[in-house]
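Q: Fold this one first, please.
A: Sequence and structure below.
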Amino acid sequence: MNNSHRNLKDDFAELTRHLPRLPGIGLGLLIPLALLILWGGFTSFYTVQPEQQAVVKRFGAVVAITDPGLHFKLPFGIDRIQRVASARVLKQEFGFRTVGQRGNEASRYSSQDFTGESAMLTGDLNVINVEWVVQYRIQDPIKYLYQQREPDTTLRDISESVMRRVVGNRLGSEVLTVGRVEIAQLARKEIQEIMDRYDSGLHIITVELQDVVPPQAVRPAFNEVNEARQERERMINEATKRANQQIPRAEGEAQRLIAEAEGYATERVNRAYGETARFRAMLEEYQNVPEVTRSRLYLEAMGDLLPKVGQVLMVQDDQVGPLPLMNIRDARQEAK
């Protein structure tokens, strides 16, 4: 830019050396005219960066929105430009502030106390510190610039109000553990709805809970309570696991016993039916030929008893030694 100014001054000096030769044009009139031309040239174009959009106003009225690149406009302040970073993801931090980051180092945070933003009361009257980040983008530059006086401040106030209400409707244990994702999603939805009603031109990308902890003064007691709850949950889980193992086993054992009892009952009933049928058949044969049936039954009974008798001895009064009546035992051994 300095080189261009130097070149313009040289050209202007070269032009003024020849001006006295031109009739009717004075030097006092030519200098303001040249300055006016230069001013018009410098104010007739503008540049928009890749992450920006430019709102062009002519006499205070918006006439165009231009995208990144080099553009021309009416000079002399007729067209004025307001640049808006519409492609950049902006964020607002609550409960903490990021100071900066150097290279690959971890982010550095401010040591200032922001508990006034993060301290909240839960539904069970517990106080916890909630730190969160709201990421958003400017969706409509015109609405962002002219619909509200301070849209960023409005977004900050609405975000804090919505987060306090959402956390206040939850239990402290839920906020600290399983409810964090649901709280962030619900807060993002409600913040977006409110900003849409205000017609602010902002789009809420995400709401992220960074750190949810109890206050420092009650943190040891809170940790003890959490440990007790975790121990209780562990014991409940172990009891449930054991119940899930024992109950199916007991039910299976009961089913097995029931099946065995039913099988035994069926066997006994069928055996009783069979004995009854055999007895009835035998009775019918006995009624037809009683003598033959009686003899057959006697012989069958003796055939079953005699092998079990062994040796039979008969002793008379006038005899000294016993007399063998039947040598059944020896006959049974010979048969074997």
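Q: Good. Now the second chain.
A: Here it is, same layout.
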Amino acid sequence: MFAGIKNGRRGCFDARAGRPVKKERAKMQKPSIAIIGAGKVGSALAILLQREGYEVAAVASRTAASAEALAARLNCPALDSRDAAARAGLVFITTPDREIAPVSAQIAAGGGFKPGQIVAHTSGAHAAGELRGVREAGALALSIHPLQSFAELRAAMENLPGSYFALEGDEAAMPVARQVVDDLKGKCFTISAADKPLYHAAACIASNYLVSLMHFATFLYAGFGLGPREAFDALYPLVRGTVANISKVGPTAALTGPVARGDGNTIAGHIRAFKQLDPELRELYGRLGRYTVRVAREKGSITEEQGRELINIFREVDDNE
């Protein structure tokens, strides 16, 4: 297993200091929690943490129906955001990103935050400072982002355990954050607020853009008659095998194909075929290819001269626009 994977063991790594975080000697008392935002992530957190012994003090949501449905499942009250937050030692604001600041500001204005409390949001893109009014009230602010994709509640509940979580925010709140991750059977690392944009961009590349790449590939297969389902079924074993190889040896060593072999003739054939397609698709193929040349050079499977030759072939895409 390559060096980037810690054998699936639980624990937390401080990316800011470049070292593992020592585990606390004994688990602390689990705080009561409130969930503000009864969507997929908030609901999954509430259900899973309740199973681990956390008292769910209250839930709130933009719509009364969603709050009441989750509250009934958890056997707790559904309240407005301010009253729900005031009841808990640990408040999760699991709203859409654009609503984190206004929701937290509204709770703060109503006196829902208090000293000694911890308030966390689950956004990957925003830092803990997005929680308006939290620190001013004497509470601690955190971002606890699960590095995972959630299509629906059941998937969220299945995928959260074992996932990595990125932690950022007030140092005094980190022991509680790490305990939450540990109780979710997850792994974590801490980052700085300044690192959040690139951290989230990388997550988007690995998840969202993978979806786009599969859409791209299945679209090309449609050109010779395969339907979307058939195209996906044909390509999926290849994707699954590639991901398995990456997990074993890492992304650089897992690279195969014409770029890794320095096979310019094959790539030139691809370029000729792409001339019949949308210019944006040709450009995308060329840009992906040029980046892949960097990976092949890092792998050491091609020489610098071969790399330059391949770059020139890929640049024909731009030159012919």
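Q: Anything worth noting on the second one?
A: The chain is about 50% helix and 10% strand.
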